Amino acid sequence: MDLARQQSILTVNTGSSNLKAALYPLNGTGTLEIGARAERIGSAESRIRVVDSHGTALFDQQGALPSHEAALRTLLTWLQDDRPHDDLAAVGHRVVHGGSNYWEPQPVTPQLIETLRDLTR
Description:
globular
């Protein structure tokens, strides 16, 4: 079965020890395709779980996720291997506080990265 390519957007929201993500098709419906959650990042008891729009588990892995990067890499590898028909057109990441300059969605630019770095110093 040859599936047609589908453009999607991946949204990411990280916390101190978790990562949440959602994949939406760029077909104008705004319907959630999959949701993912990694918990207890940095712990030997970490877990990452991916579910479809009905809550059915598509991927569930327990074991050490030493960092947020490792959790995101695990998710992206699963997406690439299990959903090869999805093309990521964009990735969005939630930033809690963008200072006085940023209060709405922004494209990632070198200036944005530098401003956000300055906020954490």
